[in-house]
Amino acid sequence: MDSSVPSRQLWPSAGACLAGWILLTSCAEPTALGRLRSSDEGTAQEAILELTRRGEAAIPELKALLDDSDPLVRQRAKTALGRITGQWGSDGSGILWKRSLAEAVGRGKPILLLQLFGSFDQELC
Amino acid sequence: MTFSDSRVVDLVKSKLEAVWESVSPVKTATFDLGEGKSVRGVMSGEIAIYFCRPDGKVFDILPALHSPHVTYWAIRDALELYERTGATDEAIAQHHNVQLIGMALRGAGEPSPEALKSKKALSDRRNARDPGDRALGEMIYSKTIVVLPEALTVVEPGGLEMFKQKIHEALSSNPPRTPGEWKHHVFVEILDQELRGGDFTYDVNTLAPLALLDE
Predict the structure, then answer these.
(1) What residues make up the domain containing B83?
(2) Does B23 touch chain A (CB under 8 A)?
(3) pLDDT for A58-100, tens place per residue?
(4) Spatial distance between the Cα atoms of B97 and B104, rounded to a whole number of angstroms
(5) Do the strands B37-42 and B27-34 form a parallel or antiparallel pair, or are they unpaired?
(6) Is A61 a domain residue?
(7) Would you say residue B214 lies in a domain?
């Protein structure tokens, strides 16, 4: 480094910082919640998967989308909530279902196990 | 609806670990009406609720789908048994034996004339010659119907006493088992449900509507 250059000049100005930030945010990937609005079904499905992986932490934001004006967004939010809670049609405030007896055994509480045809987290089970 | 009922939800969340497992894919029938039009319906709606100790052994069973009210009280009763006795092997057998004797003394659990008639009609539908006819018959009497844009589950009243008698018989005379070990007995022997699902497509022209009209 050239020691003759004043150190102050090594730092970008506040204006440059702001411009960089605006550029970065405008190019950033939409969040998983944002991608639920995608017209591309594949993108939306990936977003549902990501939100499902996030688990209970994603419930409040997904719950808010149940009132969205777009029926497709509502349906996708419902799908993600169903996968997280284990129950189709759940708004996230109800029961959180485990998917196997092994997950529930040994936790000190009695167990309620529901056996059914199909999957409880999908429509028309 | 049952597991969205606030009383059921609060009780389950506060006192129990909740688990579901599928016994088979759902059974659906599609009737091809021609020119790209079809009708699709679900034919299997039975469920069973098992109450297990923390080690996974069953101490009580509620077979079939019931109203939220009936389900709530079944959960309360099961929890009372667990909290009072710990649902030891001996307590389970004794409890169900006492219940069985109580039912016998009251004359409960015997099928009513209406239940016998329904059972015969069910048997006749299942023995129908044409599989499409059979599927349509099952759909008509299925507990699940589709009301767009949501699926609505309809519960037939009654049947609890008859099923419970068989549950008391089973749990009073067998060592504790897991739900997986009870599955076949509960669905096939008690609920009379085949553990077989899948999608079936029928040509609407093969139906035998007169057999259905007779019912």
Answers:
(1) 2-205
(2) yes
(3) 999 999 999 999 999 999 999 999 999 999 999 999 999 999 9
(4) 11
(5) antiparallel
(6) yes
(7) no
Residue type, B101: I
B101 lies in a domain? yes
* Within a domain: A81: yes
B chain contacts of residue A115, beta-carbon cutoff 8 Å: 20-23, 47-50, 179, 183, 186-187
- A98/B contact by beta carbon, under 8 A: yes
| Residue B126: predicted pLDDT | 64
Per the structure, the complete domain to which residue A84 belongs is given by 12-104
Residue type at position B132:
G
- Express each pLDDT in B140-197 by its tens digit: 655 555 545 555 555 555 567 778 999 999 999 999 999 999 999 999 999 888 888 8
- Tell me if A113 is assigned to some domain: no
State the complex-level ipTM.
0.79
Residue A119 lies in a domain: no
Q: Is residue B188 part of a domain?
A: yes
If one counts the domains in chain A, the total is 1
Q: Among all residues of chain A, which has the CA nearest to that of B28?
A: A124
Under an 8 A CB cutoff, do A117 and B13 touch? no
pLDDT digits (tens, 9 = 90+) for B82-129: 999 999 999 999 999 999 999 888 877 666 666 667 667 666 666 666
Contacts of A14-17 spanning 24+ positions with Cβ under 8 A: none
State the total domains in chain B. 1
Burial group, residue A60, by CB count within 10 angstroms (0-12, 13-18, 19+): exposed
Residue B193 and residue B22 in contact, taking contact as beta carbons nearer than 8 Å: no
The pTM of the full predicted model, rounded to 2 decimals, is 0.78
In a domain, B69, yes or no: yes
Could you give the CA distance from residue B122 to residue B134 in angstroms, rounded to a whole number? 10
- What is the amino acid identity at position A125? C
Yes or no, beta carbons of B151 and A123 under 8 Å apart = yes
Q: Is there a contact between B93 and B58 (Cβ–Cβ < 8 Å)?
A: no
